[in-house]
Amino acid sequence: MTDTAFLPDGWELVVGLEVHVELDTATKMWCGCATTFGDEPNTNVCPVCTGQPGSLPVVNKRAVHDAILLGLAINGHIAERCQFHRKNYFYPDLAKNYQISQYDTPLVSDGFLDVEVEIDGAIVIRRVGIERLHMEEDTGKSLHVGESGRIHGAERSLIDYNRCGIPLLEIVSHPEIHDPVTAQAYLRELQAIVIATGVSPARMDHGQMRCDANVSVRRFGDPLGTRTEIKNLNSVRSLGRAVRYEALRQVDEITGGNRIRLETRHWDESRSVTETLRVKESVTDYRYFPDPDLVAVTAPTERVETIRATMPELPAATRQRFADAGLNREQAIGVIALTAIDVYDDAVKHGADATRVAQWLVGDIAGVLTQESLTLAEAGLTGQHLSDLIAMIADGQLSHTMAKTVLGHLVDSRGQATPQAIAKKHNLVQLQDTDALRDIARQVVDENQETVQAIRGGNTKAIGALVGAVMAKTKGQADPRATNQLLNELINASA
Amino acid sequence: MARELTDHTAHELAVLLTDGTVSAREVTDAHLERIATFDGVDTSSGVWHRDDNTGSNDTAIHAFLHVLADAARDTADEIDAKRARGETLPAFAGVPVAIKDVLTWPGSPTTCGSRMLANWNPPYQATVVTRLIDAGLIPLGTTNMDEFAMGSSTENSAFGPTRNPFDVACVPGGSSGGSAAAVAARFAPFSVGTDTGGSIRQPAAFTGIVGTKPTYGTVSRYGLVAFASSLDQAGPFARTVADTAALHDIMRGHDPRDSTSITQAAPAFPAATTDLSGVTIGVISELVTDGFSPDVLARFNDTCQALSSRGATLIDVSLPHAPYGLAAYYLIAPSEASSNLARFDGVRYGLRVDADTAEEMNAHTRSEGFGTEVKRRIMIGTHALSSGYYDAYYLQASKVRTLIARDFSNAFTHVDALLSPTTPSTAFRFGEKTADPIAMYLSDVATVPASLAGIPAMSLPIGIGDDGMPVGVQIMAPLLRDDVLYRVAYAIEQTPLIPTGPRAVAEVNA
Amino acid sequence: MSLPEEDVRHVARLARLFVTDDEVALFAPQLNAILGYAEQVAEVAADDVEPMVHPFAPADVARDDIPSPSLSRDAILAGAPAVEQMRFAVPRIVAEEG
Ligand SMILES: [Mg+2]
Ligand SMILES: [Zn+2]
User: Fold this and answer.
1) C-alpha torsion A206→A211→A212→A213, nearest 10
2) What's the pTM value of the predicted model, to 2 decimals?
3) Ligand 1 center to residue B432 CA distance, Å?
4) CA of B195 to the centre of ligand 1 (A)
5) pLDDT, tens digit, for every residue of B54-70?
6) DSSP letters along B386-432, please?
7) Beta pairing class for A85-88 and A98-101
8) What is the pLDDT of residues B14-28, one digit of tens each?
């Protein structure tokens, strides 16, 4: 199945994505309150971010810097001078009842991302245009109290302004994505770039990166159809599923003789459907106007170039570097997706083999992290850990199975212990060609003379049974290679 | 007649305080006593709040909304103790000040003259208030105003109007009517007002005192509850030019909490001088027309002569776009206000009127919390910003604003200062203009152009009109040249030609 | 451009003001008069004029990304009309978000 073939013949999907990224600044956009995630409600608040009468905003320097950096990373044009506008609408989680945002002079315009998409087994590059990137502020959080726990059916709502005023970047793509796979690839690439530039951890499960999709369908050659806006897309996977569902739903509606309404729809992950959140009767009148409390932000060429000079390696370059180091495409993408570039580089620097490192990262380590719902950073795994582990296997100190056990303990300790200490503590030491192993092997040869005869008679495969017996006696600690060699020596020597 | 402590200027009090002739406590008590007598306030102890039915039938001035008598006495005692210990104190330490109820001051509610904030105790302090306190001034309380500073008569206060100390049947002007009346009635030698389109200058003119709207950006707006952010500026009231300059100097200065606060240093204020040789002053033709009452124009012409006699060169100057100032102002200010006042929704502070849904709660809270004029301006502003009207209203007005500012800068290439009457007429009577919003708005026709351009402007008294009410002249100077206002004002003030000085309330009431 | 009563209601809705029929009847002519006066700005030829937002045009006023003490939760919640679970409580929201 190709990426577009899920729609009936003759239909085209049109998707534009609006992505909000919470910047990883120490303080909010307009005030010195902390941006810590998960603090007690209404503890990171002040007159400014709770909209107290008479309070005034002052721009966070770092937020502007980060916005320019990301703007450059998405190949955007940085405006020499831009200003903030007020977007006026009433909502209890919006402390001033207007959001400070940008309107006709966004900081960044005309960017693009080249994303790699696999179509029919071939990798193609798709360019997705980015209309704008602008600076704005986040809203507070509402807790809906009542039976449903969701906004519908709630009796009342409780507002926490800790998140209110956290710097946000809004990145708006052109509506020129025509299949769910490209939409996903774009979001994944954008996330990787955000992480690479260091402006945000971009964790969708923490709301640090949020995606809304504008979806419409049309018959090829027709003008754009009416779009719906899908909210609550909490992962790259949800984006793909929701776009697919919504496109099919729209085609069904239209071929069934119905019209698509301009509306906001909610993606229900558990039921795998989109459903109407609210119908927009007309375009909301936000009454944008320049915020008189704030002054212009300028980005003269020198400033932009100074920032550009600090641009870290971006994912495309990383992928190329990984390929040069011998990683295959899945490994390269996997290491980046795991936000494991630093750990990878560190492990390689400590002497580990690049492809081995990648195998571990995208294989066993990714597995453990998924199982434990942890990020690499949360698990405390470092490049040193990884290179040690790989070295211990290469030295024959650990079997692969033992190394996996060590990894489990390492994650349990959140990286506090070393692989060596864990192996020692849990007695995970592979028996090498030592006197002890030689004694056990001799014992096994003595006890299994029939098998020994069979081997001598040419049934070399039967050696496996002897190795298994040694393993059993050593409770798995014997080095299989050393054991194999030892047994062969003993069998041949006494022949 | 022996001079009372309350008759003294701030400069005179500063001398008496410094040399130990009087204590800060005595000065404070004298002013509190006068407030008790003439403002319908109990200043015996504690905190006093005006509510909306206070004294609608009496003849008290009603300048104050809150008087913090105990806090004022405590502050005075602290200052006296410091002085007794030989500590070096700021020049005006121990001088009382009244503050418009639009600047946040924890300890007193900040109501903005609105039912919406009747019980709001701000959780933080305005930078200007901090500067007053750091200068050793003694805040006596907060003063009445048109609701959210929208008005020209103080009749729009939710807590009843303030009366003009010259004639209690007349309005004191607005929106800073309470602060102007407090100084005119000698409840305090200093008071702080705010000016968006004339809210310091017009009440200064109506009550016969001096009031300055500083250059936009030179006095911090942090803690000033916003009406129109691009125009709002706090400024001083006093009874003499020197006192006004002194309070202005205390208030101004860069504030990192206000993004629009400017960092450029402005020239120091001049020492009193009456010599204006070499100074060219322009008279704005568009603001000296038959739309102004004859007695106002007569006093204005006297003032021009006085200035010539001091050596100034007077020339006529045209500001071709000034006549459009009021129209532009009544689009820009309400537009900003409609957004600034959106935060009053019954969620975080202030009034809440309960309802089934958050949206209905917001709408009912705002309808009951805001008075008629505030609602009118919110609706005008909402309309001026709304889709389909933005270009014709808000945007066009903002372009006209550019042209007005350009007119001023062109004029200032020829002249050092500009002159006009402050208001078209003297103080009007209660109820005279409440039914006709535009008639009321026209009170600001001469003050609004300087507000739009951001330039400094002041009003000072130049005598009495045919109705016995004060007349004011407006002086305007280039951006950051607030010092020029004081230079010209000193010369006018010192001219015997100008019979002025506010009458005491006692005389009015007698 | 005049503002019929139905537009007055629309503006009130945008401004989240509850207005009675009597208020609409009072406001409509007043708002029309004010707008009628304000429309004088249209007489000025200003097509190629930059709109003015600030009297000065300062730029790049910004603060360092260094935390400063927040207000105590008690101080912020003290002014709130209704508090529940340390949060600002409002009646149910009929979704109408921006
Ligand atoms: Mg946004
Ligand atoms: Zn804050």
Assistant:
1) -140
2) 0.92
3) 48
4) 35
5) 555 578 999 999 999 99
6) STTTTIIIIIHHHHHHHHHHHHHHHHTTT-SEEEEESSSSS--BTTS
7) antiparallel
8) 999 999 999 999 999
